[in-house]
Specification:
heterodimer; A: 196 residues; mainly alpha; 8 helices; 4% strand; globular; B: 72 residues; alpha+beta; Alpha-Beta Plaits; two-stranded antiparallel ribbon; 3 helices
Chain lengths: 196, 72
C-alpha cells in the first residue's frame, strides 16, 4: 500500500501504454509483446511461481492505476462465474484457438496463399484500418502479418480488461487472463509433482 | 486491533497477487504461484485485501470462529 518502497518494476504500467503507442506508429513493434507472453511462462516453468503476474504485469498495474487511483472502476465484486474454473479454462482455450488461427493466417501469408491484410481486428470481429502503421520496410510480409495479428490480440484483451475494470473490480481481468490461468496451472502441476 | 482476520478460499484464488501488493502489513504471500496465504499473526483484519481481491475470495472471519474451525 502507501509508503511502500517503489521498485523499478512498479512502473511497468508505462510499458503497457508505450507498447500500444509504438504499434500505432509502426506495427512491427507489436513483436515486443511476445516478452509478455514468454516471461510469465519462464517464471512459472523455471521458478514455479507467478512472480510476473504478482509484480511485473504492466497491464494489471495499469488497470489498478486507472481503476483505483483514477477512480474509473465501480469496485463491485464480479459475478462468480467469471473466476470459475470452467470459464477461466474455457476462455484460455478460446484464446489459444484464436492465437492458433492468427498463426495460421501468418503462415498463409508466408506461403503466399494470401496477401498482407493491414487491419487490426478487434474482438476477433471488427476490422479497423491500420495501414499507416506500415509502409514498407526490410521485413518479410509474414512478419508484418504477425504484427497486425498480435497487436489485435493485445488490444482486444486490453479492451476486455478495461471493460471489466470499469464494471467490476480494478483487476478483474486477472481472474480470467489466459496467461494467468496458464501460469497458475503450471505452478499447480509443479507443486503437485513435488508433493508426490 | 480488529478481532477479525483475512481468510482466503484457496480453491477459487487465482494467485494474481493483488492482495499481497495491497497488504500494509506484508502479511500475504503467494504460495508457489497457486494461491494467496495469510500470515494470521501479522494480519490485523483491516480488510484492504478483501476489497482489492478481483476474484472476491477473501473474507474476514472472527478469530474465535477461525479457532473453532481449526479445532483449537
Amino acid at each position: 500500500m502507501a509508503n511502500k518502497k517503489k521498485n523499478w518494476y512498479d512502473y511497468l504500467w508505462i510499458w503497457s501504454i508505450v507498447y500500444f503507442a509504438l504499434g500505432f506508429f509502426n506495427i512491427m513493434f507489436a513483436w515486443l509483446g511476445l516478452i509478455d507472453f514468454i516471461l510469465p511462462l519462464i517464471f512459472a516453468l523455471v521458478g514455479g511461481n507467478k512472480w510476473f503476474c504478482n509484480h511485473m504485469c504492466g497491464r494489471g498495474q495499469l488497470f489498478w492505476i486507472l481503476g483505483r487511483n483514477a477512480k474509473c472502476s465501480r469496485r463491485k465484486p464480479a459475478p462468480r462465474w467469471i473466476s470459475s474454473k470452467w470459464f477461466r479454462y474455457g476462455f484460455m482455450i478460446f484464446f489459444l484457438i484464436m492465437f492458433g488461427t492468427m498463426i495460421f493466417q501468418t503462415y498463409q501469408v508466408f506461403a503466399g496463399a494470401s496477401g498482407l491484410k493491414q487491419v487490426v481486428k478487434l474482438f476477433w470481429t471488427f476490422k479497423v484500418p491500420w495501414q499507416w502503421a506500415y509502409s514498407g520496410g526490410p521485413f518479410p510480409q509474414w512478419m508484418v502479418q504477425f504484427s497486425y495479428g498480435f497487436y489485435s490480440l493485445m488490444l482486444t484483451s486490453t479492451l476486455i480488461g478495461l471493460i471489466v475494470m470499469v464494471l467490476y473490480r480494478e483487476r478483474t481481468w486477472c481472474t480470467f487472463c489466459p496467461m494467468g490461468t496458464m501460469t497458475q496451472g503450471i505452478c499447480q502441476l509443479k507443486a503437485n509433482g513435488d508433493r508426490k | 486491533m480488529s478481532k477479525r482476520r483475512a481468510t482466503v478460499n484457496i480453491e477459487v484464488c487465482v494467485a494474481c497477487g493483488v492482495c499481497a501488493n495491497q497488504c500494509p502489513r506484508g502479511a500475504i504471500s503467494i504460495n508457489r504461484g497457486c494461491y494467496a496465504q495469510v500470515d494470521v499473526d501479522r494480519c490485523v483484519g483491516c480488510g484492504i485485501c478483501e476489497k482489492a481481491c478481483p476474484a472476491n475470495v477473501i473474507t474476514l472471519l472472527d478469530i474465535e470462529d477461525m479457532e473453532a474451525r481449526n479445532g483449537k
